[in-house]
Amino acid sequence: xxxxxxxxxxxxxxxxxxxxxxxxxxxxxxxxxxxxxxxxxxxxxxxxxxxxxxxxxxxxxxxxxxxxxxxxxxxxxxxxxxxxxxxxxxxxxxxxxxxxxxxxxxxxxxxxxxxxxxxxxxxxxxxxxxxxxxxxxxxxxxxxxxxxxxxxxxxxxxxxxxxxxxxxxxxxxxxxxxxxxxxxxxxxxxxxxxxxxxxxxxxxxxxxxxxxxxxxxxxxxxxxxxxxxxxxxxxxxxxxxxxxxxxxxxxxxxxxxxxxxxxxxxxxxxxxxxxxxxxxxxxxxxxxxxxxxxxxxxxxxxxxxxxxxxxxxxxxxxxxxxxxxxxxxxxxxxxxxxxxxxxxxxxxxxxxxxxxxxxxxxxxxxxxxxxxxxxxxxxxxxxxxxxxxxxxxxxxxxxxxxxxxxxxxxxxxxxxxxxxxxxxxxxxxxxxxxxxxxxxxxxxxxxxxxxxxxxxxxxxxxxxxxxxxxxx
Length: 472
Ligand code: PHE
Known about the structure:
Blueprint: H1 15-26, H2 29-41, H3 45-73, H4 77-87, H5 95-126, H6 135-145, H7 152-175, H8 178-207, H9 210-218, H10 227-241, H11 247-253, H12 261-289, H13 300-311, H14 315-349, H15 353-371, H16 375-404, H17 407-414, H18 418-451, H19 457-463
The structure holds phenylalanine (PHE).
């Protein structure tokens, strides 16, 4: 089949549209749902510090590499990497770098759609207000809503209906193509999103406990820091920037030749990081003013926020805005996740874009129907993707870009000069080794932490005092 697949012919309609689509992909549940609780669990300011380091020194170079590889090859991740390997007379097996990423994006979407569905349910609920909720009743409300509580069957059909609505919306947008679907949706939704975000942050700072939020965000709790903190920060950076899954390679394939990749990448990274921090200022003041604990894990968003909205004056008005803006952000990310598979199917299997979208949506619905009510699946997938597959995908892609591809290969995309020199230095000597180290030690630290698996002695020494020897 080699050589039969051509370059993509579709392009982004404008640079603004491309930036909106990319920011739309990057800004999502990662910023609202995942970032705050991950920071809460991993030492607050210390985590945020590592996070910013990971974003700048690993995320930015990798994002540039993905766009460059995408535009150079003009194809989606798997085919694109294979064609670049061919051009350098290297093994086709490098395609595995694309495969890992593409599968990861599918796994992510398989739980992303479920959390988005919860978001829809909470948005609908928020119109009725959350008055009088305490943590216990909110917890009960959460399990009832997602179909695990007292009336699981009733809410199961409801949730499956919402899931179907969400997927159909994805199919429609992705099916309409890059310019007419994804770009258009992002250029409409993202500006609305930013306005809503400012409204919520303004409200939150004015009415919440901002002092506590500031000290939480900026004061590092070093005692909570371990190797798994680095892994958490790295995984979060990849997740939030939508890198390591081949998506940005695919988005790069639709780029016009005159779009400046380094500059656009910088803008996208800056916007995503800013939104994560601003989201922190939207969420933490409210959480603290309601006397809740920010380290309560994935449920922070769905259990704490309703309680907080129920207790704060004006909360009834701001709650729908809050869940609405999170849903906008989640939707522009899920369409991008779906695009990875659709764009590959379209170029490889000769199906139409709409056909491919319907097929992918159907498979997702079946997966969703089987586990939509299993929090264990979500936990496991979240851990597998952020803790293992995303860093692995990033490791392979950065190694490929830095060591397999020649410098000349990407000068047409990244130019020559200081930026190229810095990029090439980082992508060869910093990014792959750093990801590798964090991955190995962080993964072991985390496994040990969660499952109390015994580790070899020398690792115990390296992992430091936090490590507790297994009993027996
Ligand atoms: N970046 C998205 C978020 O933060 C999630 C995502 C990951 C989207 C990978 C696309 C690819 O929610």
